[in-house]
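quick one, 322 residues, struct below
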Amino acid sequence: MNIRAMVFVLGVLILAPIGIWAQDEPAKIRIVAFGDSITEGFGQTPYSKFLQQILNSNDCNSVVINEGLPGESSFDGAIRIDSVLAKHSPQYIIIMEGANDARNGISSRITAAALGTMMDKASAAGTRPIVGGITPNTEAGQENPLIPEEFNPLIIQEASRRNVTYVDTYEPLRGTNWSSYNIDGLHLSDSGNNILANEFNKVIPCGSSGSGGGGGCFIATAAYGSVLEPQVVLLREFRDAYLLTNGPGRKFVDYYYTFSPPLADFISRSEMLKFMVRAALLPLLGIAYLLVNGLWYVLIAFLLIPLWLCFGRTRIAVRLKG
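---
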C-alpha cells in the first residue's frame, strides 16, 4: 500500500460528506439477486420482490434486480456472474447457488470453490457480495443431509475466509413449517420466499435501519473488524438518532450506503489503512458519544473554548498595544 493510496482514501473520508450533501438526489442502491430457479421464483413470487417491498417500506432508496437462471449449476454461475456484474454494476449482489449441485451429485467442495470464485469476482468489481446457503431439499421424501452437513459448512468457510456476509437460508426454512414453505420439496412457496427476503433484509444496511440498530457502517466495520465492536455500535446509534430522523441525514446515509462498500473493501485489505481510518474516526466518535449520551452541553463547551481563547488573546493584544 503506497502513501498516495492512503492519502486518497483519507481524503475521500473527509471530503465525501461535502460532495454528498451538495448533490440533488441520491442514486438508487442496486441489489442483484443472483442464483438458480430458487432465486428466479419458479412460478412463485420470488424473494427479490418481497425484499423490494420490505426495503420500500423502510424508505430505502434501492432497486432489487432478479438475475435467477433456472437449472444453473454453481460452475455455470461462476461464469455468468461476470456479465451480470458488468450489466448492472450493483452495490450488492446476493449469491445463492448450489441447489442443483446438491441434487445432481456434484461434490460439495466444487460447489464451495465456485461460490468462492463468485465472491472474488464480485469484490474485484467493487460489489459487496452477500452469500446465502443452500435451502432444504426433500424431493426424495426426506431431507438431503449433505446440504447441512457438507455443502453449507463449506460455503460458510469460503465466506468467512473472505470476510463476506453469510446468511443462513437453511435453518429458518426447515422443520415443521417446511411443508408450507415449499411447493415440490425444492422450490419455495410465497411464504418461503418471504422468509428468505426477511433474512436478507437483516444484512442490507438501509433495509433494517428503520428498526434502530440495523444496518452498519461499512468503513468503521472495515477499520475495526466487526459490526459488534463498541465503536461501530456507537456510530450506528448516532446514525439512528441524528441522521435517520431528518431529511438531510437520510440523504447522507443513502449516499454513504451507495458509495462506501468498495472503499470499505479497499480499507479492509491494509492494516495500515485500518489504523489510519481508526485515527481519522476518533473526532467523530467523540462527538457521537457526547450526543448519543445526552452530553451535548459538553460538546458546546468544547466548541466555545477555542472562541474564548481567541477572544482573550485579542483583548490582551489590544491592551498591550494601548
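Residues 296-321 form the longest helix (26 residues).
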